[in-house]
User: Fold these one by one.
Assistant:
Number 1:
Amino acid sequence: MSKQQLNTPDVDGIMDARQLGTPKMVILGAQHMFAMFGATVLVPLITGLDVSTTLLFAGLCTLLFHFISKGKVPIFLGSSFAFLAGYAAIAPGGEMSLLRYASFGVVFAGMVYLIVSGLIKVYGASKVMRFFPPIVTGPIVISIGLILSSIAIENSIGAYSNGNWWLAIIAIVVVIVCNIWAKGMMKIIPIIIGIIASYAVAAVTGAVDWTMVKEASWVGLPIKWDYTVFSIFSGGNVDTGLLLTAVITITPIALATIVEHVGDMSAISSSVGKNYIKDPGLHRTMLGDGLASIVAALFGAPANTTYSENVGVLNLTKVYDPRVIRIGACFAMFFAFSPKLGAVIYTIPVETMGGVSLILYGMIAAVGVRNVVEHQVDFKKSRNVIIAAIILVLSIGVHYSAAGAIAFNVGGTTIGLSGLATGALVGIIMNAILPGKDYKFDDD
């Protein structure tokens, strides 16, 4: 691709980033790592899991996903927020001795992916996809973006903020300016430029605390044995009741994340203009996602999921080459083995990450809207209006309710369904039973 083409605002997209040269590919890869970093490390910070382990398996599992999906899908795997309620139910205080049991439950949730993948392989994607039409996946993707939006606000001006809200504004303004008015490479990497600009201002004004960087070692192992699932069975004191509770509590969450996966695959297909549900196939992407969560959980990292944040980056940069994602995965693994370098990223003000996240999370919701529009969902039909309304209200309403989940008792064990899980399940059921279906999935 010529330099003139790169400077053209209406360029459709870059499918082979090697045309940009290695240095630019490396920068683009770093941008993807930055995009997933804030949300990915937030999960271990909330649950009590280890940040370095999380980064290592975000990178490793992304590479595993790309291997299984034949390296065709430009998607990053990071920590799943959908499982936060599950971790909190098993280890409410972030106790290491309990977190490994929660991870055991995540392993079983990953196995649900494998089962669904097998069904798709045997019966075909079309018979499964009829349960996930745009009227279901669109509102779910919209809900994901809106649910995540609170995190961006809290980081920018809310509870997680240190009062430096102006850093978020700097990041937002720089991203917008670069994306709309910049030319060439500046237009392709607006996120990383926004982060650097905001971070630089923070460093100059004394808003960055360097203590963590000074105290961190240069090299360290990112895996801690006591956090792994294997450690449960090595001491001889296995709590079988807690194992069962973890499985029953956490496994149903997979039903929501599977829908999220289908939504992400639909969104990324729409963004790039390639049908990834057909090639490499939904069964492969589902298998890769499930195995990623299983592997990550076994070693004490959070459940992984295909990251909508990076779909937002793809929409901004128009660079759709999966090689760039794999470079970002290698960056994540590199920082996992270097506590000092990882600490540098960790010192990025939360307001800076909140500012760029505000744009990315908003774009996730916008992609959900586009999914509905491009598939010409007929909202003149009452069934479609009702399905969309129920999904949105349940997903967002339950999430922001005082309980934060819908709890019910099974055999003396309390199981909580998150808002996203509730909205997804009800939406799928309503679409299946209400008359007037007008969506026919075509592999082509």
Note: Residues 1-11 have pLDDT under 50 and may be disordered.
Number 2:
Amino acid sequence: MKPETQSFYERAVQRALEHVVAHLDDALDLDRLARQAALSPFHFHRIFRGMVGETPLELHRRLRLERAAQHLLQTETPVTTLALDAGYDTHEAFTRAFRQHYGYPPSELRKERLEGTSCARPHQIEIATRSGLHFRADTRAYDLSHLIQGDRNMNVTIENRPELRTAALRHIGPYHRISEAFARLGDLAGHAGLLKVRPTMLAIYHDDPEVTPESELRSDAAIVIPPDVRVPGGLTEQHVPGGRYAKTTHLGSYSELGDTWARFMGQWLPGSGERLGTGVSYEIYVNNPTEVAPEQLHTDLYIPLA
């Protein structure tokens, strides 16, 4: 355990939280938050989400919505103005988001306030969240210290990993559609005779979906190949650096991998005393959906350590 390392992540997320709650009227500059944390955007947002329970953008949007609800109850500000202040371009978009979170439109909340009595139970503007952080008109009323907590109980091992030489196929677009790249990878590798012995398959993700449009996200479907094997046509050679890595295992559907990544980087890492290295994070698929049921899928997650 290295307290100074844990403090590094705690301070980084604390500063980001302070910035978010103090700048609700400004568009959130996610790249700037990452730079201030001295982390890459990809790593920063995973760490923030794991420690706080939501991404900076989700937190920013929720606090704005809670502020709008409070103003509906306490002021005569027009709904259209509140919608713009909450970051919505139209009254309709604001109403949809408001109804989704509160179960009724903003006009109904204001109407009930105007028709209510002094004996009525106060309306609750707080939207349920793991962190317990809610809108406060006075930013000095925020208590951020309790939000920073690591998960040291996650099953994680530290390993010295070898360098991996891979044949990879780039996928551009939503990460959940990387299976399309794996299908194409399988065709090309199969024609080249690389699937006669069960290969090691892995995925490498390069961009943070919180700051990169889905249409521009870069990821790689890859297969480990021996040093003396030629890279098949249509694929590119990529080397995953060897070195010291933290490893955890996800058992279950691929749709829940994001939650495991969030706990790994956002809860375990800050509480571990370890620091991220300069390599890449990746997933290795020990089995696949053609072999086992979704609840039996076994995926190993690796992050590089300094």
Note: The first strand starts at residue 156 and ends at 161.
Number 3:
Amino acid sequence: MRRTTCLVFAFVVLALPAAAQTPAAPPAAAPEEDKTGTDPSKFLRTLIVLNEFRSLGDERIYDEFIYRYIQPIGKVKFQLTLPLDSTDATGTSQSGFGDLGLKANYLPKRTSRFALVLNLDSFYPTATKSPFGTGKYVVSPGATFAFFFQGGRVIFAPSLQQKFSYAGDAQRDGVNQTLVDTYFVYKPTKTSWIIVDPQFVQDYEKDVFFNQTEVEYGRLMFAGVSTYVRPGIALGKDRPGDWNLEFGVKVIH
């Protein structure tokens, strides 16, 4: 009996150091950050360089090269857009700078299923030639309602904006538009996405209504660098053009 007790005691003594040396389970890995830039409620520091070619019909074209920078500060993000344009819409080829754009977004609410983003977009008459701008100071308040499905793999984010001019060249037409955007995102993988983005525009100054529908395919290449292509088509008898093609590079850092 005494021998058995000694053996049990010895086993326990030898087992204690081994148990003490057993490594603890590693902590759960943090969820990988989404760097596709497709979620309108995620404010990420982003640089985008893109080019958009538009067919205006009757063999007229409009080409726009855009530099865009996004800087978040807490629940607010600021977006600066600088366009460089060229067109032959007036019968002769012209090129120059377009209207500078500055946008502010505020995120008052975000959950795993829903987010509300308030927008204030503004444009300034910096265009060097009249075809490249409105000649007006323009402001566009709006709101985006984002709904998340399948853990954010699917996003439906409709938005409503009212765009109007409040100052500028008195000889130029005013700006007064309502824009409804039905933005839909599907991510087949963590590094790719497909966007279907129909936008409906009611222009009260020109008394016209048209639809612009675009489809985007993008892919995350490495780190936060991605590329995308975005073809589109305009619908309605009052459409400002026939089709467009945009491609760009996006860097999230």
Note: The chain has one domain: 34-252.
